[in-house]
Amino acid sequence: MSGDSTTIGHDLKGRQPPLYIAVEGPIGVGKTTLAKRLAATFNYQTLLEEAEANPFLEKFYRNRKQAALATQLFFLFQRAEKIEQLRQTDIFEPVRVADFLIDKDPLFARINLEADEFQLYERVYKQLTIDAPRPDLVIYLQASTDVLLSRIEQRGIPFEQAVERDYLERLNEVYSEFFLYYDGAPLLIVNASEIDLANGDSDYRHLVDYLLDIRSGRHYFNPTFFG
């Protein structure tokens, strides 16, 4: 990064950032990178899913059918525990940026689990997500399958290299469908194919400036418009 790319408080112009932001998108799109950068900018705490802590994830990428239920339930318990920690804090000052939205969790379950496994998952999900706090802003990062594959390769996590194109395409489809109808919180849809969230100061500054004015509804951010 260059300059003061993460500490841009002087650009807020007195505007209040959303107190609880959830960043979402498929594997490789950059949601954790953006969540950490927003947290640094706004001096917020992060709420991260810590995929590396899931002991079943490597097995899942090798054999999705065999390890899907264990992988999914581990993530569900992990995310629900983090949401519960958030819920127990001061509800007026949550100031968190999360790299997941608990409402979207069933997306993976639907495409990875057998029918009987999904029924079990649904029962657990409904019990664990009662009274989950509503984000003040959800940011959905979109990118093409080719971009996702390239970024997964570049970051070089060994077991992720087994991710198949067909699986990523299916993920992109279910994400698009989910957010097409999502109305649980103000939504910002970002074209992340052409944006460098780790090093692109200009695009990042435009994104922050744009999201600071969002209070309701559905919005779109395409960095090419600001070129």
Automatic annotation (TrEMBL):
In this chain, ATP is annotated as bound at 25-33, 151-155
Assigned keywords, A-Z: ATP-binding, Kinase, Nucleotide-binding, Transferase
Task: Cite the SUPFAM superfamilies for this sequence.
Answer: P-loop containing nucleoside triphosphate hydrolases
Which molecular function terms from Gene Ontology are attached? ATP binding; deoxynucleoside kinase activity
Q: Which residues form the active site?
A: 99 (proton acceptor)
Q: Which PANTHER family match?
A: DEOXYGUANOSINE KINASE (PTHR10513:SF46), DEOXYNUCLEOSIDE KINASE (PTHR10513)
What this protein is called in its record is Deoxynucleoside kinase
